[in-house]
Design brief:
This protein has 264 residues and is of the alpha/beta class. It has 13 helices and five strands. Helix 12 links the parallel strand 3 and strand 4. The radius of gyration is 18 Å and the shape is globular. The protein starts with a helix and ends in an 8-residue tail after the last helix. The C terminus is likely disordered. It comes from Allosphingosinicella ginsenosidimutans. This is Response regulator. Keywords: Phosphoprotein. InterPro entries: CheY-like_superfamily, PhyR_sigma2, PhyR_sigma4, Sig_resp-reg_PhyR, Sig_transdc_resp-reg_receiver.
């Protein structure tokens, strides 16, 4: 099997990670593209002593670390997601954010995450704690949950409240979601894909975004269906069944890059 065949199944998830790390589909995809270009240009330098997924993420981190992480290659325009996050980025380094997302969202062990960011497992755990504490201190929001499974909705609501956020409502259909969003504008939306009346959470989000801008985190059992390379694609995506730490990490990142929650 060729190197390309080995890496192909992992690319949608690397794009998910890159987007969460940068807070932007455009910026994240640019770093992934640069990673693939580096592999094509020098395939003999690809780490062959580890699992292909680890090697892919290791190459990505080499590209990310060598770049100015405050800006996407080509320079981010003032006022975009990276610029908005400048106040926070000055108080939390990229390394803790990487450790948090690699373990909480991508499911790497502290040992594997340590390999990726050149840290010991103990250092990874310390970095994760640092990132969560710092980001959670800086972000608070009203959250709308769009989820038709009661147990999952209750679990998400508990996580959201534990983080110090306020839940404005839990909607189970497209129409209900839009109605609640219009009645009380949320600062964050957590949306399932398939809703109670066979309506679409994607359509609900489109209706809401047509009225105002708000960060959105999609929740689905099939993330690869939303990471096909076609447009539009979500910046923030949670896979079912999810870990509580994954939801916390995604909420923190989504709000981290949202202009409405930039501290004064």
């Amino acid at each position: 099997m060729s190197l390309g065949d080995d890496l192909r199944p992992h690319l949608p998830f690397l794009r998910r990670y890159a987007r969460a790390l940068t807070g932007s589909q455009q910026h994240g995809d640019a770093f992934v593209r640069a990673t693939l270009e580096a592999i094509v240009a020098a395939p003999d330098q690809f780490p062959r002593s580890v699992d292909p997924r680890l090697g892919l993420y290791k190459t990505f981190h080499a590209i990310w670390s060598s770049a100015n992480v405050e800006e996407e290659p080509g320079h981010a325009a003032a006022g975009d997601a990276e610029g908005i996050a400048q106040a926070r980025l000055s108080r939390i380094t990229p390394l803790p954010r990487q450790a948090l997302l690699l373990t909480a969202m991508e499911g790497f062990t502290p040992e594997d995450a340590g390999y990726l960011i050149d840290a010991s497992p103990e250092e990874v755990e310390s970095l994760v704690a640092e990132a969560l504490a710092e980001i959670e201190r800086q972000t608070r929001a009203d959250v709308l949950i769009i989820e038709d499974e009661p147990i999952i909705a209750m679990d998400i609501e508990t996580i959201v409240r534990d983080l110090g956020h306020n839940v404005t409502g839990v909607a189970v259909t497209r129409d209900e979601a839009v109605q609640q969003a219009m009645a009380r504008r949320p600062g964050l939306v957590l949306a399932d894909i398939q809703l109670a009346d066979d309506s679409s959470g994607i359509d609900a989000v489109k209706d809401i975004l047509a009225q105002f801008s708000v960060p959105v985190i999609f929740i689905t059992a099939f993330p690869e269906r939303l990471l096909t390379g076609e447009r539009p694609e979500p910046t923030f995506l949670i896979t079912k069944p999810f870990q509580r730490s994954t939801v916390k990490a995604q909420i923190a990142q989504a709000l981290f890059f949202d202009s409405a929650t930039v501290p004064a």
